[in-house]
Amino acid sequence: MVYFSLAFTKAAVWHGEKDIRVEDVELRPLKENEVKVKVAWAGICGSDLHEYQEGPVFIPVGEENEFTGEKAPLTMGHEFAGVIEEVGSKVTKYKAGDRVVINPTITRGIKPDEFDRYDGYAFIGLHSNGGFAAYANIPENNIYRVPDSLSLEEAALVEPSAVAVQAVKDSGLRFGDTVAIFGAGPIGLLTIVAARAAGASRIVVADLSQPRLDLAKKAGATDIINSGEKDAVQTIRDLVPGGVDVSFEVAGVAPTFKQALDATKARGIVDVISIFARPIEWNPMQLTNTGVSVTASIVYTKKTFQQTINLIASGQLKPQDVVTSHIQLEEIVEKGFEALTKDKSQAKILVKLSGEK
Question: pTM of the predicted model, to two decimals?
Answer without folding.
Answer: 0.96
